[in-house]
Structures
1.
Amino acid sequence: MIDGFGNLTELYNEVILDHAGSPRNFRENLEAGRKAEGYNPLCGDQITVYCLLEGEKLVDLSFTGKGCAICTASASIMTQTLKSKQIAKAQNMFERFHKMLLGEGGEDELGKLSVFAGVHKYPARVKCATLPWHTLQSSLKEGDRVSTE
Ligand code: ZN
């Protein structure tokens, strides 16, 4: 691989492996008002994010699908981190998360999300880590309504 998987431990740390192996909030939510599907053709990651809003607050977040370890762990930690946060706060965290993935720092303020700091050395993996966030964003913007029928 051109993007150099020489030092795997740097990329796949313990927290990432834990979340990839047993992802949190990994479930459908047919009562969620919003959902969106995300696909990363570079890697084959394909996920669906479900989002239940109460006003501007993300009261419940969950996801399903098939992704690589980075994508699955990112979705898992994202749902944990953003649950019960305001949309504006979530957007702000995504901006900072994205900056960190571009190698621009800021991991000190990102709590658990900082486990992805090493991803910036693997450009092909950045899209895996951001896919859940982009998918969440598109659910908030376009708001594909979940059909309960
Ligand atoms: Zn991936």
2.
Amino acid sequence: MTYLDHNATTPLAEGLSKYILPYLQGDFGNPSSQSYELGRSAKSAIEEARLSVSELIDAKPDEIVFTSGGTESISIAILGVASMMNEGDEILRSAVEHPAVKAVINFCVKSFNLEEQVIPVDINGDLLFDQVTDLSKIKLASVMFANNETGILHDLLTLKKILPETALLHVDATQGIGKIPFSFKDLGIDLCSFSAHKFSGPKGIGALILKEGISWEPPLSGGGQEQGRRGGTESVPLIAGLGYAARYSKKNLESGYSESIRNLRDSFESKLKKELSEVEIVGVNLNRLPNTSNVLIPGVVGSDLVRFLGERDICISAGSACKANTFSPSPVLSAMGYSSLSAVSGIRVSFGHGNTKEDVDLIVSEISNFCKNNNKLEGLLSEGK
Ligand code: PLP
């Protein structure tokens, strides 16, 4: 198998499953049971993980709240601020946010009678701040660190500058952490969400980072765990796994992971361009994640190509979908201003640990095979579908 879909999920870091095994077997204590050693051992595993996460993302250990992953972190981050807002207050988001962000904002707007404002993006993925109107009503902004489909990084420092002082900034950093250095402190963020499985950790675990002292009402306070900020008995094995992945990622970033993955991605893009000169690489000259390549291939249906490669054991993704011969273009590319024809033609190749030059050669050759032998989009268009 050739796995080139690391923005979807990643394999576990080497040694991680062995590291967490004791917490699935004999070391099964409840971290709230502090009167005996079994509980204290569970608690210390959690605190060790908290420290490792804080070192990876440059936040204080006490600012970290363990959750079940990106979607939960995003949901409780936004709910916890929105539930304290007044009727008519506004939440600002970008046009290219992940559905997890859009859905919870939608829910909050309806439930608390709030307003939503969307920052448009241009074809370069740049946020069009000058099109935001009446900043004064904005109490919360939610903008992603890096886009999951294109890898394009957003200008959070400028966003922070234009926001009213009283507005909080939530950042969905699910796609950036572990791929490039990330500093919660330096970006001036108030709330930040991410998931372990995007950087070699287990699925079902993530964190919400809450800046010390911000006003936020915990939607899931339950039994008071995580300092009353996220109730529920902690998943000790998964939290320990997140800590392990954080240490692994920090070490890799310090020894040049971003640069080596960028070299591999860049060689894929230049080899593909050599084979198929008509391809367009989205955001090619922009600040983007070093592992992500979003490629538009004129005349191709991205989801068909993804299926073709899947049949050959090569795993990648498409932002678009094709069901019963009707195409739904990638909402991210559509929001950037790409035509529907372009937005269905995109594929996302995302590199990660373990990928090699041979993987690059294989996928380039299979994509060109597909393009030489298939042009389904043209066929379907000529049939008027
Ligand atoms: N945000 C972004 C940018 C993502 O890419 C994803 C997952 O793909 C999520 C949020 C949701 O993360 P999870 O599925 O771990 O809850």
